[in-house]
Design a protein that fits this description.
The protein is of the alpha/beta class and 337 residues long. The chain has 2 domains: 141 residues, Rossmann fold, CATH 3.40.50.720; 181 residues, Dihydrodipicolinate Reductase, domain 2 (2-Layer Sandwich). Helix content is 38%, strand content 25%. It contains 12 helices and 15 strands. A 7-stranded mixed β-sheet has the order 12-11-7-10-9-8-15. Strands 3-2-1-4-5-6 form a 6-stranded parallel β-sheet, sandwiched between helices. Helix 4 packs parallel to helix 5 and helix 8 crosses helix 12. The protein is globular. The termini are far apart.
């Protein structure tokens, strides 16, 4: 069975997905839409995408297209999800699903009632290293988990224009790490507390955001967690995880371009970590899109579904509430009107 897909939003992440889909057998990207379609056309033509348009309706209303990837700005997601659901199309949506977690819950309920596959774009779950940590925890290799630590630091801040529309560090960046602690721990978060600061660039603070954060978590299963985020690590993309348990410890360290290490009288040296997420998570992006296609083909739920997207979004907004109100926030507070 050949699956025809459409992609709405042809920026950096849309192009990544289009490139990976072109490698998969039995799959065709029939159409791609973007407001800057003229800039998209050269690489879309190379990938053999026959329809390039500025009109999302050409994808939404095309009866041959059975699934759509939403890679457009977050503020467009809710309307697109609702329309695609009415048209009976399976959906892959980049995170966050929306800027309003209550509306996110509404739309994922609508998708579930329609019996459609919905996958949230948390690619890090498909990273081989993190999957191995999860397998070890499930197998009991480190006993009962007590503490989980996640370090996630970008090599440099995004543009100011991006920060203005992204929802901020906690909504745009930390959301990946909040999903990761749920995934690795196998438990929901009960309480969250955030300390934030502007230590990298004062202009980020002028935009109402932070560039440095320390997030502490208490899980329903009794575990404790710590996430530290920074918009600028001068040595590269810093992505590490550690889980400590009653029988031991398991950790993931940074990926490097090579494993070469040299020693001199001045010390021991090696190259910096891979520079950014496109390099660090290249294989996980391919694996997540393969999983989406497989879920459609075999009529199975997505491995990372709408509920996962909702929970990470909920945690991100609880984190922001904690930052603003300078106190721990229980997750049960978030749906109280």
């Amino acid at each position: 069975m050949r699956i025809n897909l459409g992609i709405i939003g042809a920026g950096r992440i849309g192009r990544i997905h289009a490139t990976h889909l072109a490698r998969l057998p039995g799959v065709r990207v029939k159409a791609i839409s973007d407001i800057q379609i003229g800039q998209v056309a050269p690489w879309a033509e190379e990938l053999g995408i026959p329809v390039m348009t500025t009109d999302n309706d050409e994808i939404i209303e095309d009866p041959e297209i059975t699934a759509v990837l939403i890679c457009s700005p977050t503020d467009t997601h809710l309307e697109l999800i609702r329309r695609l659901t009415r048209m009976g199309k399976h959906i892959f949506c980049e995170k966050p699903i929306s800027f309003d977690y209550k509306q996110t819950k509404q739309v994922i309920d609508e998708v579930a009632k329609a019996g459609l596959v919905f996958q949230t774009g948390f690619n890090r779950r498909f990273d081989a290293n993190f999957k191995r940590v999860r397998q070890a925890i499930v197998a009991g290799d480190i006993g009962t988990p007590h503490i989980i630590k996640v370090t996630s630091r970008d090599p440099e801040p995004p543009s100011y224009e991006y920060i203005k529309s992204s929802g901020g560090l906690l909504i745009d960046m930390s959301i990946h790490d909040l999903d990761m602690v749920r995934y690795l721990s196998g438990s929901e978060v009960e309480e969250i507390y955030v300390q934030g600061a502007v230590l990298v660039d004062s202009r980020i603070g002028e935009l109402g955001d932070i560039d440095t954060a320390l997030i502490t978590l208490k899980f329903e299963n009794g575990m404790l967690g710590v996430i530290d985020n920074s918009r600028k690590a001068v040595y590269g993309y810093d992505q590490r995880v550690e889980v400590f348990g009653s029988k031991g410890n398991i950790a993931v360290y940074n990926d490097y371009p090579n494993q070469v290490e040299w020693c001199t009288a001045d010390g021991t040296h090696r190259d910096k970590p891979k520079y950014f997420f496109l390099e660090r998570y290249k294989e996980s992006y391919l694996a997540e899109i393969q999983a989406f296609v497989d879920a459609i083909r075999h009529n199975q739920p997505a491995q990372v579904d709408g509920f996962d997207g909702l929970q990470a979004e909920l945690l991100a907004y609880a984190a922001r509430k904690s930052l603003v109100e300078k106190r721990p926030v229980r997750i049960t507070e978030m749906f109280v009107s």
